[in-house]
Design a protein that fits this description.
Oligomer: single chain
Distance between the termini: 34 Å
Mean pLDDT: 85
Strand content: 15-25%
Shape: elongated
Structural class: alpha+beta
């Protein structure tokens, strides 16, 4: 009986193995990788359509009217000319700021007539303006008599329990306000107090208090309400500064956001206190933007992740899966050369991976362009669109050819698929940092050369050192990229052929 040609034997093995390649439970997750971006685009377009329907239900304006809005216009003038907006939201913000003419966080209190005392006490009736009204921060508490000398400087001080050991009462009398939070007296106790012993009875004519704002903190932490009292004997105290506070005023800002829609674009108008301060106009469907997004998705998701790990799941399972199932020896009993078996299994994995990932990429490409304006899509397809689709498909196909051969061979050499996957993924990830010659030993380098849109360059905002190190080699020509991938594939399959010829089945040792 005449033996079948080797190519026919390989094709027979391929047809038998197709079921394992397409429907293996161990590799069923590859379908999620292939079609995940399509679901993202589908959901995105559905969300845009629903938003456009919602905006249209409230009325549309002409593009000319939308473009006529200028900064500085009042909200009333815009509504009178453009009509009622599709969205109108107003909110009021308030914040505490110091009163005009007041020094930030510093209060000065004149004692008239002068009061003779040795002990001066600050009683805090309410802390800051913020919600945490119990907290108080005092950077300096100064006492002046008949001359310019600060009588309280470096004097003995006591006070309520501090926020931390580094924020004790003595910090309010050290003559400094520039040392940060560790250069202040802070307390969170209710009815906190701060007291200084001047050493002897002296006339007190002026009190200067430097609150949180003087030390660089937010002015909302300035002391809201306090009083200053004085005593000769530290027993009986008289009030020399009636209850007062670090004065602040409330700044009110009324912000209003209005939205208009012209059927294609959405304009967001932002008003402050009745006047337009900014205008943002965005296309509901940006064809050029979606094309750039797809290019990024294809190169950074499909090529680097989906096809890479998909081929890992499909091709590693062709030999390694049969070793785990203890069925590989049946193939070795078949009257066919082992290199034919290798070629047949590779063909099955190749067909499955190409159908799954090329199909997934083209489906995503179709979903990307389908919702856009018919004339715009038609013009794109007549010019560069069909060529883009073709080369995206070719990049996916050759990705399956290259990565498939690597992982098929890995299934013959290694037990654990994580090891070759990690090594190859690391090599592909650092590709841009390698010398140009070494970059050409990467499958990803040739796949990117096949893509119709170049890979996004390193961000201008990236650190300078990263931009200096990241120097991608010039892309290969498309014919050179195809030959490069085929050369890598041929070399890997040659090594796999040597491995399978020498393989001896021993499921215990898997050698």
């Amino acid at each position: 009986m005449k033996q079948q040609p080797r190519w026919r034997q390989a094709w027979t093995i391929t047809r038998i193995e197709l079921r394992r390649a397409f429907f293996s439970k161990r590799a069923f997750w590859v379908y999620a990788l292939a079609f995940f971006p399509s679901l993202i685009f589908l959901g995105y377009h559905a969300q845009v359509k629903l938003r456009a329907m919602s905006l249209s239900s409230s009325g549309k304006i002409t593009p000319a009217l939308m473009d006529s809005v200028r900064d500085g216009e009042t909200a009333e003038a815009v509504i009178e000319r453009l009509g009622k907006p599709t969205r109108d939201f107003e909110r009021t913000n308030a914040r505490r700021i110091r009163e005009k003419g007041e020094e930030s966080g510093v209060t000065t209190h004149t004692v008239e007539p002068a009061y003779y005392a040795r002990f001066i006490r600050l009683n805090v009736l309410r802390g800051g303006y913020s919600r945490d009204s119990a907290a108080v921060s005092i950077y300096e508490f100064e006492v002046y008599g008949d001359g310019p000398e600060n009588l309280a400087l470096n004097r003995s001080a006591t006070g309520s329990a501090p926020c931390s050991p580094d924020e004790g009462p003595e910090k309010a009398f050290n003559g400094s306000v520039f040392g940060g939070v560790e250069d202040r007296w802070c307390s969170q106790e209710r009815n906190a107090y701060l007291q200084v012993d001047l050493g002897s009875v002296v006339p007190v004519r002026r009190i200067v208090i430097r609150h949180a704002g003087a030390g660089g903190e937010t002015e909302e932490l300035n002391t809201f309400l306090f009083a200053v009292r004085a005593s000769v004997d530290n027993v009986t105290f008289a009030t020399i500064v009636n209850p007062t506070g670090a004065r602040a005023v409330e700044e009110i800002t009324v912000r209003r956001n209005m939205t208009y829609f012209d059927g294609q674009r959405e304009a967001r108008l932002n008003f402050e206190n009745g006047k337009l301060v900014s205008k943002t106009t965005e296309l509901m469907r940006d064809f050029e933007g979606d094309r750039r997004i797809f290019a990024g998705v294809f190169q950074f998701f499909y090529l680097r992740l989906a096809i890479f790990f998909g081929c890992l799941g499909i091709f590693m399972n062709l030999f390694r899966g049969e070793m785990l199932d203890r069925t590989l020896h049946y193939w070795f009993l078949v009257p066919a050369r082992r290199e034919v078996l290798l070629l047949g299994k590779y063909g099955a994995g190749l067909i499955a991976s190409i159908v799954i990932f090329t199909g997934g990429a083209l489906l995503c490409f179709g979903l990307m362009i389908y919702p856009h304006n018919f004339l715009e899509v038609q013009a794109f397809l007549r010019n560069a669109g069909m060529g883009h689709a073709f080369w995206y498909a070719m990049a996916a196909i050759f990705g399956c050819i290259g990565y498939g051969s690597v992982f098929l061979a890995a299934g013959l050499f290694l037990r654990n698929p994580i090891v070759p996957a990690a090594v190859l993924l690391a090599w592909e990830s650092i590709n841009g940092f390698l010398p140009a010659l070494m970059q050409k030993a990467s499958i990803l380098y040739y796949l990117q050369s096949l893509c119709p849109v170049p890979a996004p360059a390193a961000s201008q905002n990236a650190p300078g050192l990263l931009q200096l190190l990241l120097t991608p080699a010039s892309p290969a020509s498309r014919s050179g990229a195809i030959l490069g991938i085929l050369a890598i594939t041929a070399a890997v399959l040659w090594l796999a052929r040597r491995a399978i010829i020498r393989m001896q089945i021993s499921y215990g040792g898997e050698s």
